[in-house]
Amino acid sequence: MRLRKKHFAIPEMKENPYVIFDGKKNKGKWKDVFGNDNDIYLEIGAGKGTFTATSALENPNINYIMIEMETNAFIYATRKILDYNLKNVIALPMNAKDILEYFGEDEVSRIYINFCNPWPKLKHQKRRLTYPDFLEKYRIILKEGSQIYLKTDHKEFFVDSLKYFQEQRFVGLISDFNMKEEDYPLNIETEYEKKWRSENKPICLGVFEKYS
User: Fold this and answer.
1) What angle do CA 47, 95, 35 make, to 5 degrees?
2) DSSP state, residue 3
3) CB-CB contact of 3 with 74 (8 Å)
4) SS3 82
5) Residue 163 annotated as binding site
6) Distance between CA 126 and CA 133 in Å, rounded?
7) Burial 70-92 (b: 16+ CB within 10 A, else e)
8) Domain segments of the chain: what residues?
9) Cα distance from N-terminal residue to C-terminal residue, the chain
10) Is 117 marked as binding a ligand?
């Protein structure tokens, strides 16, 4: 379901010092923006920002960048940065297909992709955030030995994604088709995850490591 147009979203985000609309100028220099040498974790398709905000609160020594192109949802994510006084979070309103224009080689230590659009129709599958074209770009910005974490409720999308990661030479560390909360005590739930769990819908988890 599409969110109703929020005409206040972009003007409000432009007043937020942690939201960067011209992030291309910081390519390869994000540690300078944060002012430290901490690892940078990236959430692609952050939505309303619950996952990144919670992660940043629990891990103050990690720098987080959340990406989202839908400003009607992202406005709520960017508010969380201020509400929780998060000094280790930056928000980028951008399209993931342009990721190489924003991040340099080996600049990111981890990527999260949580409950993205599965694009089930064959003609739309190139839009998937795990499609090989995207994975090729992620390989460039990820450090050697870094991981991509994928969570989804869509089994067919997950099965296809496992093939994509293998084709792009990622090592599969975890491929769990029914992720039990008790097996992952450090798991941070997204809004969608809470919803699907309340309906007893299986959650798929994949963790994939970059290697040469």
Assistant:
1) 80
2) P
3) no
4) helix
5) no
6) 8
7) ebbbbbbbbbbbeeeebebbbbb
8) 18-210
9) 40
10) yes
* Single-letter residue type at 74: F
Say if domain 18-210 classifies as CATH 3.30.10.20.
Answer: no
Tell me: is residue 43 an annotated ligand-binding position: yes
The one-letter code for the residue type at 169 is R
| Tokens encoding 107 | 């600049």
Phi first, then psi: give them for residue 38, nearest 5 degrees: -65, 155
What is the rounded distance in angstroms from the CA atom of residue 94 to the CA atom of residue 68?
A: 6
Q: Is 121 annotated as a binding residue?
A: yes
The answer to the question of whether 181 is labelled as a binding residue is no
Q: Annotated binding residue at 153?
A: yes
Going by the DSSP 8-state scheme, the letter that residue 19 receives in this structure is B
Predicted local distance difference test score (pLDDT) of residue 212: 79
Tell me: is residue 52 an annotated ligand-binding position.
no
Q: Is the pTM of this model over 0.85?
A: yes
Mean pLDDT by 10 residues, the chain (212 residues): 74 97 98 98 96 97 97 95 98 98 98 98 97 98 98 98 97 97 94 93 97 84
Paired tokens of 20: 């960067």
199 is in an annotated binding site: no
